[in-house]
Design brief:
Order of helices and strands of chain B: EHEHHEHHEHHEHEEEHEHHEHE
Radius of gyration of chain A: 21 Å
Strand order of the largest sheet of chain B: 3-2-4-5-1-6-7-8-9-10-11
Strand order of the largest sheet of chain A: 3-2-4-5-1-6-7
Number of strands of chain A: 12
Structural class of chain B: alpha/beta
CATH superfamily of the largest domain in chain B: P-loop containing nucleotide triphosphate hydrolases
Strand content of chain A: 15-25%
Number of strands of chain B: 11
CATH superfamily of the largest domain in chain A: P-loop containing nucleotide triphosphate hydrolases
Oligomer: heterodimer
Largest sheet of chain B: 11 strands, mixed
CATH architecture of the largest domain in chain A: 3-Layer(aba) Sandwich
Number of domains of chain B: 2
CATH topology of the largest domain in chain A: Rossmann fold
Distance between the termini of chain B: 37 Å
CATH class of the largest domain in chain B: Alpha Beta
Strand content of chain B: 15-25%
CATH topology of the largest domain in chain B: Rossmann fold
Distance between the termini of chain A: 43 Å
Chain lengths: ~325, ~280
């Protein structure tokens, strides 16, 4: 099928399909999958069990066509994002990956912004790869705010047959600063602990402090606390080495969540998206590891000190 | 460092007391670390009822002396000093003489002490020996510790050249201790316990490289037991890579044994399980 604004093979695309019927969903998905298979690439269709069953009936089978369930593939925005990055960075040849489906927004609308930020970050993280996505959003069930965020995070809007540039699209850095991204902010209540670090020898005290209060005052799983403490240690080290000491640590504890704010006394940090791209073999990896070891890692600048990094377990 | 509301909950690193025995290298980053190490080592000796000989030059600065360290760290050493159980030896030349060491050990055992402990700063010994002689002294000490009821703790500043630390690591059969990290030689490699971050990754690198260089060229696997390593950061993982690079380049294999889940996850994130020559083995 010839399309007015075709997806360019070998490049990157991240399209939004808004649909208000199953027929539109199936039609758009079929068009996308046909293109992917024609390009010689690997195609993945993912969704809930019910949707996958429906789409499988329309698409049938093909050696390069896989079906996946969100419950297996889309466990959290961070793990999903970096799983795709790893898969693409480590793929031996330039085989294209075509993915279509809906991220699992779920019934709890307060969780939607974290997946909307994922949609935006896909552009940053997967942009360098031969990757094509068609994200299908059901306008019958998703709230208006989530649909609006989708227009801001997808460079193109597609019907499966036709594609146009999204007039509302924002670069990831701009989207993350936009109120509609609902990027987490530091809690407004009293912190559980604070600590000032002057040298790398203080890192251990910060780790022991946060791991201790996490274990004693929250129900966060051991594994998540350990990952969080690794992220914290790397972020603090960054502040000591690339910012300027003293580095201030503030920690908040909730039943199901640990949050830490790290600020240094340097001149601030300009790249909010640092640590997302797949690192060079011998390049720095601390921030890239930190981003994967916790669920949220938000870089900003403070008004009174230098760089600020907010990290959270959920 | 200022502490917050939870400062009282900071967990100290908790080592088994026996980890202070044998021919041990105390690597210290700060003078505070050295003092903590010396105090804990003496305390362990007093608990064992050991004869304790501490070597220090007569002109040691007062605040660095054993007496100052023990009083600052609240180790009650007055009774032990009174009865001669704890003794400061100020003749360094004598203290490094194997014949002198053998005779004081014999004397103490005859006097009824179950075991003898000696400690001092390596830099003190360098005032009377060449580096090569010092290594021979350390080798003789290691033999003494392995064949007699003797423990010896040699204090090295972590800022010493990595080659110095590396060579020293290879001759301390009870391993290396630092405030966060403990490495112990094993028959086919080294066991690592505690925590590694960028404050002590250089020490881990020296310990690993020292143990690794001891292996016969290209023969067998170098086994790094990670089962008691509680924390490792990216710089620590890099230390694993660089310290074993020569061994792997000449065809040697490095087996990373039983890392705890968080360390395992880090090593896999950094693809160490796929680096040539590394084998990552689960718990």
């Amino acid at each position: 099928m010839d399309m007015p604004n075709p997806i360019v093979g070998g490049g990157y695309s991240h399209d939004l399909l808004l649909h208000d019927s199953d027929e539109d969903l199936v039609e758009g998905t079929v068009a996308f999958v046909e293109q992917g298979l024609a390009s010689g690439g690997q195609v993945l269709v993912h969704s809930s069990e019910e949707r996958v069953t429906m789409l499988r009936q329309a698409l049938g089978t093909h050696p390069r066509l896989d079906y996946g369930l969100d419950g297996d593939l889309y466990l959290s925005p961070t793990s999903t994002l970096f799983a795709y990055e790893r898969k693409l960075a480590e793929s031996p040849d330039a085989a294209e990956l075509w993915v279509t489906g809906t991220v699992p927004f779920g019934a709890d609308h307060t969780q939607h912004p974290s997946w909307s930020r994922y949609e935006s970050l896909v552009n940053e993280v997967l942009g360098p790869f031969a990757f094509h996505a068609l994200c299908t959003y059901d306008t019958r069930t998703l709230p208006a705010s989530t649909l609006e965020a989708a227009r801001l995070t997808h460079p193109c809007i597609s019907t499966g047959g036709e594609r146009v540039d999204s007039p509302d699209y924002l670069d990831p850095a701009d989207f993350l600063s936009d109120p509609r991204a609902a990027t987490p902010r530091q809690p407004e209540w009293e912190p559980a602990a604070t600590l000032t670090l002057h040298t790398v020898e203080d890192l251990q005290h910060a780790r022991h402090l946060v791991s201790g209060i996490g274990a004693s005052s929250s129900a966060v799983a051991r594994e998540a606390i350990d990952g969080f403490v690794l992220a914290l240690s790397e972020v603090l080290l960054n502040g000591l080495q690339h910012g300027r000491p003293p580095v201030e640590l503030t920690a908040w504890v909730e039943a199901a969540k640990l949050t830490c704010l790290v600020t240094d006394a340097g001149s601030g940090f300009s790249d909010r998206l640092s640590g997302y791209r797949y690192p060079d073999k011998d390049g720095p990896k601390g921030l890239w590891v930190a981003r994967q070891a916790c669920e949220e890692l938000i870089i900003g600048n403070t008004t009174t000190r230098g760089c600020s990094v907010l990290i959270a377990t959920a | 460092m200022s502490h917050g509301a939870y400062a009282g909950r900071v967990q100290p690193v908790d080592w088994p007391q026996s980890a202070w025995d044998g021919h041990l290298l105390l690597a210290y980053v700060s003078e505070q670390d050295r003092r903590s190490g010396v105090a804990a080592w003496v305390r362990r000796g007093l608990e064992l009822g050991a004869k304790i000989l501490y070597v220090e030059r007569p002109d040691v600065p007062l605040d660095r002396s054993l007496t100052a360290v023990l009083s600052e760290r609240k180790v009650d050493s007055v009774p032990a000093m009174g009865v001669g159980q704890l003794q400061v030896v100020d003749s360094v030349r004598e203290a490094v003489d194997p014949a002198w060491q053998a005779s004081v050990v014999d004397e103490a055992l005859v006097a009824g002490y179950p075991t003898v402990r000696l400690s001092g700063e390596a830099s003190t010994v360098w005032t009377v020996t060449s580096p090569l002689e010092h290594l021979q002294v350390e080798r003789a000490a290691d033999t003494l510790c392995r064949t007699r009821p003797v423990s010896m703790m040699c204090q090295y500043a972590a800022r010493e050249a990595s080659s110095t630390l590396q060579e020293a690591c290879a001759v301390h059969s009870a391993g290396l201790r630092e405030s966060l990290l403990h490495t112990v030689p094993t028959p086919d490699g080294v066991a690592v316990a505690g925590e590694v971050d960028s404050s002590n990754e250089g020490i881990l690198r020296s310990a690993l490289a020292g143990a690794c260089a001891d292996l016969l060229e290209g023969l067998g696997a170098f086994v790094v037991d990670l089962s008691r390593l509680r924390f490792m950061d990216v710089s620590g993982a890099r230390a694993l890579l660089t310290a074993t690079a020569d061994h792997r380049r000449r065809g040697g294999v490095v087996r990373l044994l039983a890392p705890q889940p968080a360390v395992d996850r880090l090593l896999r994130l950094l693809d160490l399980d796929r680096v040539d020559g590394f084998i990552l083995e689960g718990a």
